[in-house]
Amino acid sequence: MATEAPAHGGYLDILRAPHAARLLAGTLVGRLPNGTGPIAMTLFVRDLGGSYTLAGGLIAAYGVSNAVGQPLLGRAVDLKGQPRVQLPAAVLSALGMALFALTGIGNLALAYAAVVVAGLFTPPLEGGLRALWPSVLGREDRVHRAYALDAVAQEVMFTVGPLLVTLLVALRSPAAALLVINVLGVVGALSVVLSEPSRAWRSAAREAHWLGPCARPASSPSSARSSSSASPSAPSRSPPSPTPTTGAPRPCTAG
What we know:
With 255 residues, the chain is mostly helical.
């Protein structure tokens, strides 16, 4: 019992920080299309008489394109900033899903193209929020509490989101649910990118490499010194091979 009170107080402290509640709420609302897309698409396809196999194929296309698009959009955010990438991506993603909702499954090629566009341009709001926490909260302990709060809020979204979809389906139709959820996604992204922290954020300068975080130096100066100083009394029988100092990546390994 003694450990729970500080946690709740810590969460309230995070939410009272300037911009924090807006950024968290906007990110969660902006991610509704991604979090509720599979169930909304399934209900929509079934309502039109399509099979679960077709629904699964469309959801798979949406998920794969999402996995492809996220790192590309994340790199674009690093280069161009959050507002210039997040909002256009959210709009394009919503337009793709709106096209799917309005045209249905009569033309399968068009249906697949629409969901691929929706998945490919899903904005990386979660990664953007995690990048903003240090500038918003300052202290490292508060940033860690914000990460925990974000994880809890995501679970709430994954619980409330499907309930919202089923409510919209019951009140209107599966197509309406798809449209409303994606409009809410654009509103959430807009709320985030118009905030001062999002507009002011810039990625830390670093040397780009196609291997990303796996592009680490093959050896460090300390390891080079230790290897050169080993067995000082042994004569050198062949010239030492050159040791790369910068720019030479090594394979990315676990740990």
